[in-house]
Amino acid sequence: MENTDINISALLNVDIDKILKQTIKEKIEKLMEIELNAYLEENPGIKNGKYKRDLKTKYGEIKQLNVPRDRDSNFHTQVIEPYNRSIGMEDLIVSMYSNGISTRRIAGIMEDILGNKYSKSTISRITDLTIEEVYKFINRPLDKRYIAVFLDGLFFYLRRGNVDKEPVIFALGIKETGEYEVLGFYLTVKESHNTYKDVLEDLYSRGLKEPLLIVADGIKNLDEEVMEIYPRSEFQLCTIHYARGLKSNVREKDIEEITVDAT
């Protein structure tokens, strides 16, 4: 460990919504930068810094979002425009940055985001730059060791012909410095030990060789998949799922006392 003073117990008390909100903020800001750059290629002008605004999401309000602008105020981002979308911006971002996404689906998501505001050439340029950014995130190398890796299935509205709420496996790492890092989002039709195994194999292939602890939910046989790929790691059931399991196996009058102890 680089820092023996890190409070591991405190780090394991993860606020997933807060981390997702920060990640979505960063990706939206990057997407707006790409949008402005592509706009200025076709409409010559000069960048003029950024202004701040807030954005409501299902994870809470994103404060102080950095919105780029041009000197003549001709550029108006479509990324956070409040026109009617069938899917929220936060779900579009998670879907787009998920492992397994195709370039065709990214292009479809960009059409959802940009609407008909720009010319076909500008939309194509924004899409190409976004695809490059997405695959850079998905394929980036990871640290060899993490204090802990969290795996959890979250539900997002995704478009596969129709708009449906589907599971995305979320992988979060705690670095040896104590920092949180979003390791990846993984599209899946349903949660199973096989889909989690695919996630673990992807993390391993990108360089994550020695997670000290892996925390996940109660998917059957998941602990065996973890031990196969990471035999030296500890496996821990997420306290939320652990508490749910206790509730289904104890008398009603004992539930409150036991679940308080579990969490």
UniProtKB/TrEMBL annotation:
It comes from the Archaea. GO terms for biological process: DNA transposition. GO terms for molecular function: DNA binding; transposase activity. Keywords: DNA recombination, DNA-binding, Transposition. Pfam families: Transposase_mut. This is Transposase mutator type.
